[in-house]
Amino acid sequence: MFKKILIANRGEIACRVIKTARKMGIKTVAVYSDADAHALHVRMADEKVHIGPPPANQSYIVIDKIMDAIRQTGAEAVHPGYGFLSERMDFAAALEAEGVVFIGPPSGAIEAMGDKITSKKLAQEAGVSTVPGYMGLIEDADEAVKISDEIGYPVMIKASAGGGGKGMRIAWNAAEAREGFESSRNEAKNSFGDDRIFIEKFVTQPRHIEIQVLADSHGNCVYLNERECSIQRRNQKVIEEAPSPFLDEKTRKAMGEQACALAKAVGYTSAGTVEFIVDGNRNFYFLEMNTRLQVEHPVTELITGVDLVEQMIRVANGEKLPFEQKDIKINGWAMESRLYAEDPYRNFLPSIGRLTRYNPPKEGHSVRGGIVRNDTGVFEGGEISMYYDPMIAKLCTWGMTRADAIEEMRLALDTFEVEGIGHNLPFCAAVMDHPRFVKGDITTAFIAEEYPEGFHGVTLDDATLKRVAAATAAMNRVVEIRRARISGRLGNHERHVGEQWVVSVGGQAYPLTIQADKTGSTVKFEDGTHLRVESDWTPGNSLAQLLIESQPLVLKVDRIPMGFRIRTRGADLKVHVRTPRAHELALLMPEKLPPDTSKYLLCPMPGLIVKISVVEGDEVQEGQALATVEAMKMENILKAERKGVVKKINCAPGASLKVDDIIMEFE
């Protein structure tokens, strides 16, 4: 077995590989850029090597710098993780020439299947059903529009070397095809150093289901069942699960056998994933093969018990797979929520900054019999950089049934504390409670269909609001008792904590009476209903874990005047707990309105101005592109919300802006 391996990656996947290597007794080497000098993966590794400036094209994807790090440390093998150099044939070839083992497939398989265009052609030759499209190289935007017209809209514009949603656009007309081609090519060049683009028909109402394969160099190949990855935003996966709620055993077997046949046809070894589009009749079409470890591999590990990273290392060491297809079972159900550094209340735009609080839920077996797992590459006090992918962590849960796994995820998301940046935890929580998701009625269009105007938080139903009201009333009583017990009081001036309160939350006012005893409080509402509250919460704790009528309720808690800011189940609430008289007076207070910014185009995220599409004096129309901002390897086109005339442009391409910096003003 290898004595030392180098991880040619960063962030959570580097940490993930280090954990398994440590378990196997293998020493690890981390590489890092200037931006990652204090990163978690650097702290965890046995050795570290600096490889350059923050931009990936000057550090993590520069093959010569990785090779130098290997020579410095004497690493015998390299694990590439995902992204960066993981699917670069020339990297695998460079390692081979150096006599260093690549923990992944042979360079020939990477060349055949890692390239989206080549893999499509090979799949067609092998008789695999593929989506209609144009597999040749596309020179410019004019040719992209012509090809798109011939295929028929909508079309998917994709980077040949792409992955992780980078370099992908859906175009519904010629204008979007032209715009999408340019943005996809730019993103592909910046992220992968390869700007080749291809176009295929976009199948409407599709499910994105992928098969995990694992093959050794002795001719053995198995499939470890499927993952449902249909909950996507901008072609970037957000929620994944295993198995799929849609597949039956017959379709699963057919897809798995086809995936293995394709892998064997190209001499594949190691872990890989064959992605399919599946329509409503369970017809499936080959989409692409990812010749690497997938981001969402933990859900497969949770339902099969197979450590995929360990098997990749063992296969690279020449070992046979320790199991056959008949040994691979489906045990329970697993969910994964990707925690991204992007603000769901600002159209999911990237958010960077320092993690002033980062407190994930406890990993391992839960009190409800499930499992919680959190794969991460960050820590409290660490910084989220603008140079890399916005993913912070992958929160995974396991339960015996899909409903169990979802409930475990709901509570884990509510328990996960992240402060200092915008993040998508509220959105993930909202998905877990969405009736369509709970039913399993999902497609890749789920987010676009269910949140067409973006995400604006969750409106809780009356029953849940009552639970929150009862909880905060009990918490407020704890606060008031602490105040009443202040030392140094005058004699005969003891303060009595009242029993009658009005809780205002979610636009509702709940007059209630609270009676406490040694084990908790009973909250009685004006309509005669009552709720039993049990909790050991104390003032100052940012997380409250309560039992309401013996059912768990988890609240993230911040104090505000006369109440709390509460976050739970995707909702962000201001809860005021007042005496009846204070409530009457509060109703008379005027509402403070936000400032009018309708005549400004504000920068929605920290980023770099790539393009200004108008000049001063231009009359712009609703939906017209105004500027392009690049952040976290993604280009974001800012468009006009209404008609207007450009009065002043405050910045030029190349400018680096903060959130809410003024890009341009309108008359």
Walk me through this protein's architecture:
By secondary structure, the protein is an alpha+beta fold. Helix content is 28%, strand content 33%. The chain has 17 helices and 40 strands. Strand 28 and strand 29 (543-548) form a beta hairpin. Helix 5 crosses helix 6 (116-125). The longest helix has 23 residues, at 462-484. It is globular and about 90 Å long.
The structure class reads alpha+beta
Lateral strand order in the biggest sheet: 14-13-10-11-12-15-23-21-20
Beta percentage is 25-35%
The mean pLDDT is 93
Low-confidence stretches: none
Count of DSSP-assigned helices: 17
Distance between the termini: 69 Å
The gross shape turns out to be globular
Number of beta strands: 40
How many whole angstroms does the radius of gyration measure?
27 Å
List the helices and strands and how they pair.
Blueprint: E1 4-7, H1 11-23, E2 27-33, H2 40-44, E3 47-52, H3 63-73, E4 77-79, H4 89-98, E5 101-102, H5 107-114, H6 116-125, E6 133-134, H7 141-151, E7 155-163, E8 166-171, H8 174-192, E9 197-201, E10 207-215, E11 221-233, E12 236-242, H9 249-265, E13 270-278, E14 284-290, H10 297-304, H11 308-316, E15 333-340, E16 342-343, E17 349-350, E18 353-354, E19 357-359, E20 364-365, E21 371-376, E22 383-384, E23 391-399, H12 402-415, E24 417-419, H13 425-433, H14 435-439, H15 446-450, H16 462-484, E25 500-505, E26 508-516, E27 521-525, E28 530-535, E29 543-548, E30 551-560, E31 563-568, E32 571-578, H17 580-586, E33 600-602, E34 607-612, E35 619-620, E36 625-631, E37 634-639, E38 644-649, E39 656-657, E40 662-666
Parallel strand pairs: 1-2, 1-4, 2-3, 4-5
Antiparallel strand pairs: 6-9, 7-8, 7-9, 10-11, 10-13, 11-12, 12-15, 13-14, 15-23, 16-17, 18-22, 19-24, 20-21, 21-23, 25-26, 25-32, 26-27, 27-28, 28-29, 29-30, 30-31, 31-32, 33-40, 34-36, 34-39, 35-38, 36-37, 38-40
